[in-house]
Amino acid sequence: MIVVDTNVVAYLYLPGDHTAKAESLLARDEHWAAPLLWRSEFRNILAGYLRRDILAFPAAQQLQEEAEGLLAGSEYEVDSRLVLELVRDSDCSAYDCEFVALAMTLSVKLVTMDAKLRKAFPKNVVTLSAG
């Protein structure tokens, strides 16, 4: 099991420079977890694609459903105190700290491309390439 941030999920479903890495990660470890926040963040990414006419509504809806299926049963609420402690001890956003908090709680790594998170929490965070 690994915790993935929303961008890793987006790389898997929205073709781009990191898609092959996300697919390789899924092949190595298919049990992905995330805080419930990932859904709103992914919807926001899809909203950008809709507004730029990169995706049609049915395609965006289908991608949301597929991503929710991938993470079904592996979405978690996180401890607010832990998130705030992580915020206090770093300059990372509370949103990003939710992913770190979940990884810490589950005793697994967070996979991300976010260099700021990797620098702030090197024991808990790995890059997508290393994931």
Structure, explained:
- This protein is of the alpha/beta class.
- It has helices at residues 6-13, 19-28, 37-51, 57-71, 80-88, 94-106, 115-120; strands at residues 2-4, 32-35, 75-76, 110-112, 125-127.
- It has a 5-stranded parallel sheet.
- α7 (115-120) links the parallel β4 and β5.
- The termini are close together.
In short:
This protein is α/β, with parallel strands linked by helices and 131 residues long.
Topology:
Blueprint: E1 2-4, H1 6-13, H2 19-28, E2 32-35, H3 37-51, H4 57-71, E3 75-76, H5 80-88, H6 94-106, E4 110-112, H7 115-120, E5 125-127
Helix pairs in contact: 1-2, 1-3, 3-4, 5-6
Q: In percent, how much strand structure appears in the residues?
A: 5-15%
- What shape does the CA trace take? globular
**Ends apart, CA distance between termini:** 11 Å
User: How does the major sheet shape up?
Assistant: 5 strands, parallel
